[in-house]
Every structure is written in C-alpha cells, then in structure tokens.
Design a protein that fits this description.
mainly beta; 7-stranded mixed beta sheet; 4-stranded antiparallel beta sheet; 11 strands; 0% helix; globular
Amino acid sequence: QVQLVESGGGLVQAGGSLRLSCAASGRTGSMHLLGWFRQASGKEREFVAAIWWSTGMTNYADSVKGRFTISRDNGKNTVYLQMNSLKPEDTAVYYCAARRDGTLFIDYRQGYAYNYWGQGTQVTVSS
C-alpha cells in the first residue's frame, strides 16, 4: 500500500506560479510511475504529467508543455509539479497518482493505469 498526500494548491493570478508537492508513504519501494491529473468542475479528469521513478523520464500533456515541470526527490519520496505561466483554464483540483508495477505498454495518460491516488489539492487561477 502507498499513501499519497498533495499540498501546495491555492489562489494565484494569471501568469503566476505554484509548486505542488505529493508526499508518498507506505511501501514506496514498489512505486514505478508517478502522475499528476486534474479535474475542473463539471469536467472529466485529465492527464497533466508523469514521471518514471527510477529513471526520471517525464511526459506532459500538450496543454502544459513548456509551462509545467514534474520532478521527484527520491530521498524524500516526493514528487513535485512546478506550474508557471498559469492560466484560468488551469483551475482544477490536482491529484497525484502512483502505479506500483512496471509495464512497458501501459497508457500512462489514463487514470486506470494508476493504483493509488491522493486526496487532491485545489488550484484556482484568477483572470
């Protein structure tokens, strides 16, 4: 079992920045893939970014490329999402997710690829 706790959300003006944190605990040695998803009010959950724990390889949704950066601190078992140049359309609840096992051909952009989820943290960007 892996527990994930997000923090760092809040209110910012358009063009501002936030850094989200996701602290993992429990059987963190089993983590293979960490991802960030978001869900705006009334909309479906969407993929934001992913990072492979052992290699640091990353992937991003097209909507956030060049603005968001996902990273991890292995010693702290923490994954971060640095969000710059924020837009009102970035407003959503942001969730951290983890997959315990490695597979070569999983669709990391889909929520079903992940086994564990955090409680979410609200990000609101004002215009």
